[in-house]
């Protein structure tokens, strides 16, 4: 990959080009649609973005992204798909004073794919999205009021016919933020009108309290609404056209500290979900998305960030209880580990830098019935760097150093030991 950033006289631009190609690994080790070969991947992308400040009140920016590539997979002999992704986004901002800002945004995206079996065209599946929005941020007293409207249109074109091939979602939202001495309050509400799944009102409340020096307590409650994507509904061989939207209710309690030696946080949370959209290994011939009537996810997350003997240390650990409350009552939700942790250790030695990461995850299940168990795993990564000159740095990273075999989805292999050598140029501005 290569990139460049430049600017001056109120304007700026950035270019980023990247290409990635690999012969891959044998992606699937199961007997269904077995194809014991290496499944390669190729992706070339270009990003162009820039912005300009017209005067003290007006500024805008534009971003264009395109990627093209091919992906081989074990859906049959020599199976592969070709894909193109395009994203265009623009934003115009007007700030008539220090207490008000108005932002107009618009964009489009496209995800185009063609599937081949034995080198012969099999199917086409294209999704396109257009969106826009207007947001006003208004300072009122010591608070901030945000009001807005957004609009989104999704379309699907395919070699197959569907009962519905487009939909529009319109949303209205508002948010209030206010500080009261050592306490703060944030409240928001949103109304969505989905052309396929109807209307839904959601909202959230967040409270924070700096009750002691370098200590902050937070609590929140919120509701959510998620409509299935066209890929989840209709993608050939995978989609489920009977999917419905999911709704959720979440609570969270957190404690954060910033002592002299670093930072730490502890968060407890619980989410209850109706009609949860999740992968079901027993749905259809290849598995696919399905609705789970009722689910509950509760957990605890701890994070610490500090310096030990000159080493930057960051550690995190998560304990989850992701439970299916419906037909498979008491069963763990598929493909979710109940315990996970990560430790990152980094240090610079003059022109040299080095670091290591340790990632661990507990067992998980591939299906709702919890009859397909996948064991836990631990991964060890290493990285080194050397500053060749003021603007040049040589980097080498090795992931999965001990070539651990593991799965996060049953029968699908994960990469073994991999290494990446890179040269970075970052000239002084």
Structure, explained:
This protein is mainly β. The protein has one domain: Maltoporin, Chain A. The protein is 1% helix and 70% strand. It is built from 1 helix and 24 strands. It has a 22-stranded antiparallel β-sheet that branches. A two-stranded antiparallel ribbon has the order 20-21. The protein is globular, with a radius of gyration of 25 Å. The two termini are 20 Å apart. 9% of the residues are buried. The model has no long low-confidence stretch (mean pLDDT 91).
List the helices and strands and how they pair.
Layout lengths: L1 E7 L2 E15 L13 E15 L4 E15 L7 E18 L2 E18 L2 E21 L2 E16 L7 E15 L2 E12 L3 E15 L2 E12 L3 H5 L11 E12 L4 E19 L7 E21 L2 E14 L6 E2 L6 E11 L2 E10 L2 E2 L7 E2 L2 E11 L4 E8 L18 E8 L4
Antiparallel strand pairs: 1-2, 2-3, 3-4, 4-5, 5-6, 6-7, 7-8, 8-9, 9-10, 10-11, 11-12, 12-13, 13-14, 14-15, 15-16, 16-17, 16-18, 18-19, 19-22, 20-21, 22-23, 23-24
């Amino acid at each position: 990959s290569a990139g460049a950033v430049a600017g001056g006289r109120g304007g700026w631009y950035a270019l980023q080009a990247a290409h990635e190609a690999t012969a891959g690994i044998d992606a699937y080790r199961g007997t269904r649609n077995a194809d014991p070969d290496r499944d390669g991947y190729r992706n070339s992308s270009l990003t162009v973005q820039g912005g300009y400040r017209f005067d003290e009140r007006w500024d805008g920016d534009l971003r264009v992204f395109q990627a093209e590539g091919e992906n081989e997979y074990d859906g049959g002999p020599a199976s592969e798909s070709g894909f193109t992704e395009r994203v265009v986004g623009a934003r115009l901002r007007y700030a008539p004073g220090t207490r008000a800002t108005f932002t107009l945004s618009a964009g489009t995206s496209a995800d185009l794919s063609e599937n081949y079996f034995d080198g012969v065209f099999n199917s086409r599946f294209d999704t396109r999205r257009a969106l826009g929005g207007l947001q006003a941020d208004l300072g009122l007293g010591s608070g901030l009021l945000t009001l807005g409207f957004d609009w989104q249109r999704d379309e699907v074109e395919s070699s197959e016919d569907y009962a519905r091939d487009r939909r529009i979602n319109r949303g209205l939202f508002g948010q209030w933020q206010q500080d009261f001495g050592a306490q703060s309050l944030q409240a928001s509400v949103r109304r969505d009108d989905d052309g396929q799944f109807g209307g839904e009102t959601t909202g959230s409340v967040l409270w924070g309290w700096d009750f002691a020096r370098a200590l902050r307590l937070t609590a929140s409650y919120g509701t959510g609404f998620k409509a299935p994507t066209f890929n989840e509904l209709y993608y050939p061989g995978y989609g489920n056209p009977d999917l419905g939207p999911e709704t959720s209710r979440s609570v969270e309690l957190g404690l954060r500290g910033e002592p002299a030696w670093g930072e730490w946080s502890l968060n407890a949370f619980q989410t209850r979900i109706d009609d949860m959209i999740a992968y079901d290994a027993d749905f259809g011939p290849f598995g696919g998305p399905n609705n789970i009537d009722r689910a509950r996810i509760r957990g605890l997350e701890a994070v610490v960030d500090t310096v030990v003997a000159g080493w930057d240390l960051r550690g995190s650990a998560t304990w989850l209880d992701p439970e299916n409350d419906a037909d498979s009552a008491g069963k763990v939700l598929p493909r979710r580990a109940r315990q996970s942790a990560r430790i990152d250790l980094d240090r610079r030695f003059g022109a040299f830098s080095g670091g290591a990461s340790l990632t661990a995850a507990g067992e998980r299940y591939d299906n709702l019935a919890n009859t397909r168990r996948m064991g836990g795993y631990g991964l060890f990564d290493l990285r080194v760097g050397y500053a060749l000159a003021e603007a040049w740095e040589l980097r080498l990273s090795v992931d999965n150093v001990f070539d651990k075999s593991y799965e996060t989805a049953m029968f699908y292999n994960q990469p073994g030991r991999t290494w990446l050598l890179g040269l970075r140029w970052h000239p002084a501005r």
